[in-house]
Amino acid sequence: MRHVVAYGSDHLAEERADVEQIVVISTGGTIASRWQGSGFAAEARGGDVVATAVVPEGVSVRVVDLMSVNSARLTTAHQLTLLRTVREVLADPSVGGIVVTHGTDTLEESAFLLDLHHDDPRPVVLTGAQRPLEAPDGDGPRNLHDALLTAASVRDLGVLVVFDGQVHAARGTVKVQTLATDAFADPSGSRVGDVGADGVRIHRRPERPTPLPLPSAAPPLPRVDIVMHHCDADPLFLNAAVEAGAQGIVLVATGAGNATPEISTAIHEAVARGVLVAVTTRVPTGPVAEIYTHGGAVDLAASGAVLTGTLRAGQARIAVLAAALASTDPAERVDALRHVLGTPGAPAPGTRA
Question: Is 71 flagged in the annotation as binding?
Fold first, then answer.
């Protein structure tokens, strides 16, 4: 098999002779979908999915059938179950890495949540498919082969997304195509590597904050909502989320993170009630930044919102969710969110004096 021993500019994995055990955790998605009479839905077991792929030489596979759902139906409870299962699987020292087969709709969110808590040098690689299990031109078999090879090859890169011959860091990687097979990319960054005929080639090491502790799964789990700004937008939906009991809100702003004075006031009131508010943008590429006032990011930040850099809505929500799971104290949640975002000088969760 191949195992990466160096990083930097285009390092290629070196050969190793021993057999690496990779555990495939099956969660459903298009890669496990079959025709249901009116459309496709996740149905196949993990063994059926693995049987479609060529297993790389030097790799042995064990399958864990965790769930079988279309990923648009995933909940925080599902994702925490996946997180705990990953931790349980890695408790076995004979396991060399994990591949998670997952639906593409919310793969970016599950990958980021796993990455925020991943504290093991062994890789967790998420993959899936844009075409169903039995499609004659299916992309699932290649994606699964590449994910297995990557999981058996790399170390100390955190959680990865492998799709269409490309290796992506969990952070920043989003679904960029609804149907095409090159479904994932980081619009504001570069991919981590590639998988080709000569193996796994790594271009860079992702930057990651210190992993968060495994969160408690005790109910009730925190509600975190997403609200989008647009022409004629008012604070109605943001206030409705607060009244519905949201412990966190992500505002999807315009431009570099801008809204209106009325929304800035609503954020100030929400923060005063202990709600954790984050700001991202509906623009595909680039960071949010404090440039404009009159309801712009300057005012939103002054009202207590935390700007999320280049994270887009789904992953910004996961960042807020992880911070809400890390503490019940509003100030500690802000610290945890800034830590997750990699904000310079942000204290580690639980270290506030």
Answer: yes
The domain locations on the chain are 2-202, 224-341
| Residue 65 CA to its chain's centroid (Å) | 20
β-strand partners of 98 = 23, 124
Q: How open is the CA angle 195-122-92, to the nearest 5 degrees? A: 130
**Which one of the listed residues 76, 104, 127, 173 is annotated catalytic?**
104
Kind plus residue range of the DSSP H or E element containing 21: strand 20-28
Max Cα separation, the chain? 63
Task: Kindly state the helix (H) or strand (E) to which residue 314 belongs, with its residue range.
Answer: helix 313-326
Query: Burial code of 239-263, b = ≥16 C-beta within 10 A, e = fewer?
Result: bebbeeebbbbbbbbbbbbbbbeeb
To the query of whether residue 254 is one of the catalytic residues in this protein, the response is: no
Q: What is the pLDDT of residues 130-173, one digit of tens each?
A: 999 999 999 999 999 999 999 999 999 999 999 999 999 999 99
pTM exceeds 0.85: yes
In CATH terms, are 2-202 and 224-341 the same topology? yes
Assign domain 2-202 one CATH number from 3.40.50.2000, 3.40.50.1170, 3.20.20.70, 3.40.50.300: 3.40.50.1170
Structural domain 224-341, CATH architecture? 3-Layer(aba) Sandwich (3.40)
Does 92 carry a binding-site annotation?
Answer: no
pLDDT value at 234 more than 80 = yes
Q: Which of 30, 101, 281, 310 is catalytic?
A: 30
Convert 266-294 to b/e letters by CB count within 10 Å (16 or more is b).
bbbbbbeeebbbbbbbebeeeebbbebee
Has 30 been annotated as catalytic?
A: yes
On the CB side of 101, CA atoms within 13 Å amount to 44
